[in-house]
Amino acid sequence: MTPEEAANLQVANVIDARGTACPGPLLEAKKGIGSIKVGEILEVKSSDQGSRNDLAAWAKKVGHEFLGYVEADGHDRLFIKRTK
User: Fold this and answer.
1) Which domains does the chain have, with CATH numbers?
2) What is the pLDDT of residue 7?
3) What are the residues facing 68 on neighbouring strands?
4) Do 45 and 23 touch, CB atoms closer than 8 A?
5) Rounded distance, CA 34 to CA 12, Å?
6) In this predicted structure, which of 5-9, 50-54, 61-65, 77-81 has the lowest mean pLDDT?
7) Predicted confidence (pLDDT) per residue in 28-54, tens digit
8) Which residues pair with 13 in a beta bridge?
9) Distance of alpha carbon 9 from alpha carbon 7, whole angstroms
10) pTM for the model
11) Where are the alpha helices (DSSP H) in the chain?
12) Which active-site residues does the annotation give?
């Protein structure tokens, strides 16, 4: 996903998990996914590099769609689409 593509996503909620180490961003994503409707997108901001793999694996395991991430000013912006 390019920064331009990310900028065009309609995000329903943003979780700021910067500064927390694993499993912090994953736990925040688990809580945050419940705050959006099916079909909407959750953005998770994380400074933990492991979040890229952790969130992708979690989304696949529970049936959501990991849309990707973009790097932004010292952190990642990760995008998950709620599918159920």
Assistant:
1) 3-81 (3.30.110.40)
2) 81
3) 79
4) no
5) 11
6) 5-9
7) 999 999 999 999 999 999 999 899 999
8) 42
9) 6
10) 0.93
11) 3-7, 24-33, 51-62
12) 22
